[in-house]
Amino acid sequence: MDTPDRPRAGAAAGFEDSPVFNFINNLSPIPPPKPSDSAHNVQLFKSSDLAPVSSIFASPHVPPTKEPKLLIRDDSVQFAQESHSPNSVRTRTGTSSSFRLIRCRNIVSETRNITCNLNEASIDSLDDASHSSESKLPQPTQNGVGSEEADKNQHADGKDVHENQLSEQNDDEVATYDGGYMITHELSGDMLTLAVPIEAETQSANDTLNTDNAYSCKSLPNDNSNGYYIQNSAHEPHHYWAGPVEGVAVDKSTPQMPPDALQLHLMPNDQACNKLNEPSDYMPIKQNALSQHLRGTRRRSLFNEKAGATSKGVNKSSDRHFASSTTPKCKINSSDNSKSLRTPPCALPGIGLHLNALAAIPKEKMVPQDTQLIISQCSNLPCHFGFSPPPYEQSIISDDIAQTTNIVSAEDASQGSPKKKRHKFDNGDGTSCKKCSCKKSKCLKLYCECFAAGVYCTEPCSCQGCLNNHDNMDTVLSTRQQIESRNPLAFAPKVIHTSETDQELGDYPNKTPASARHKRGCNCKKSSCTKKYCECFQGGVGCSVSCRCEGCKNTFGQREGVVLSSVEESKLALEENACVKEEKCENDTQLVIYQATDSAPAENVLTAPVVVDCRPLAALPPASSKKPRSSTKLTGHSSRLGNSQAPLKSDIMLPSFKNYTEMVLGDKTSDTLKGSSSTQTSVKVVSPNKKRVSPPRIGTGLSPICKSGRKLILKSIPSFPSLGGDVNNEDPKSKLPAP
DNA sequence: GAGTTTGAAACT
DNA sequence: CAGTTTCAAACTC
């Protein structure tokens, strides 16, 4: 590690002596990514190292499963150690970890070479034992990349190592894996998803249900972390991966990555990392930017078929994988005539995701089992035709996704309306199949939910004259562009969820965090915003000032009461904080589950910086109500977990996120970003039905701003207000003075 | 499953 | 930008 002593002329000898500096110097010889290959480099870069980071920070669509684990586990378990790690520069839990990893790696790399994996870094932070084992596993075979990711994941938990390996080696074999979750590490860190082996999932699900407390937090997050599995229901043929499933799947699917690809990933990563690392201070920012950027790229490459085509040059590797592995699967699924052509449901990363759905997923549906299928197969996922949502959206989306998942499931469960003509599997991402039934729009207008969600219509759709398929890619894209030209936000998530949402929801069902609002606001007149006609209600969010509804009775939050609600929330928050588990939730069973999960969070309340959202999305409408009720959603949690990662993301994302929030939400959000560190500490506890019980808000709680967990995270990153909770969240490593 | 209601999207 | 029409989802029966 330390070749501390290189005498260097210069006042900054100390600095130069630093391993990092040395490392950098050593790195210099490494050829920087070629411009021509920039695209590749980017992807590669992403895939391996950056991806994790990016995923952590920004990846909107991808709730990097890893991160969740990392965050959670790290926070819970390892942070303490990490904090000590000298290397660790970065602070925050998940994110910080990622950062650290990078640096560490770099440092290590000096001695070792570029091949060094994050493992090392993780080692620093992580427990030696687990790490040691971890480091061994994936690295050699997978290349640094896989190992790194795996490591990261593993860092959270030593167990993961196996998982990672397994996942890498056997995509399908996941089932055999006992581990709570598998980590399918993808080449792209972003893509990296934690897939819970079916068995594992089942178990995990059971565990989550049963063991909740002990494991719940982990398991849930992990499971959920899997990305966002959007598991609408066990039955549902489609499970949607909010995250970049395919990329993952592809990578996995090709457990045997072409060496080239692997190497490429490795190299670029290192380089990238190096670049990023150089200014430690800048690291976060750059990474954010990069990660975001990269993600956007990746998505395109992975998910946007067409886009991919356009950008193929850039994302060759990803494309390859995608094409090879993913496509086939998708096709398998898609069998229908007109739709046969349609791209198989491929998981689409958060692009164009609609965050609308916030409902909680019923336990039943939560069953992770399907999840595996989803992950492994990703077959069902509708292919996203693509657009990559802006990074800022992504972050939001990720949250939303989780919520969405919940919502959907919730709908199914709560509404239980057998009828539900369509089950929209909305990840929130919009990646999921919407099962549209368009007749005249040709599925090329926003009327079409599939189109609006940025996904091709798939078999489940009953549309007529559908042009929203892979064959008509050009048409779809052109149409999309036209629509976007008119309304840039046309494909943006209708409902924006900020971290606040979770917390707020927890406080009171009626209250909807300002952060989570319908973008444009509804214009309901007869539905009183109590039916799904209302997009706000459908999205599980309260009506906001932007709404023009009449007679608003939105159970998630009435328009007029918004301000008050925030105030009230603060008060209530106090109470709630006292009783995290108390729930208003009607569904006890669900609550039970959550509570179990919450229990862990409870700790978090004090310490856990990591935002554990077990939350059901938004306050759910009364159980009786058809509306999406939050049923226990493991996925939701998982997604949440993903959210937990969000902090990391948020860190990186911050700038963009801020902008986005400002754009969409308004100042408030930005404020939150600026916001109090307190939010960081906030743990989101979700009551199954309802709304999440507001996690204890350590510091503050009250201010709506503070409430937003993500916001907190974001804020936290820059400044680490130290809270007991923060400590957890924050990496002890974070010791580094924030740049 | 058919028909109605509803509100967003699209159009003028 | 406002008003109207079109559209498909949500809902009811």
Automatic annotation (TrEMBL):
The keyword DNA damage does not apply. Residues 149-165, 730-739 have a biased composition (Basic and acidic residues). Residues 127-172, 307-338, 622-646, 670-702, 717-739 are annotated as: Disordered. It is found in: Nucleus. Signal peptide: none annotated. Residues 676-687 have a biased composition (Low complexity). GO terms for biological process: intracellular signal transduction; lipid metabolic process. One of its GO terms (molecular function) is DNA-binding transcription factor activity. This is CRC domain-containing protein.
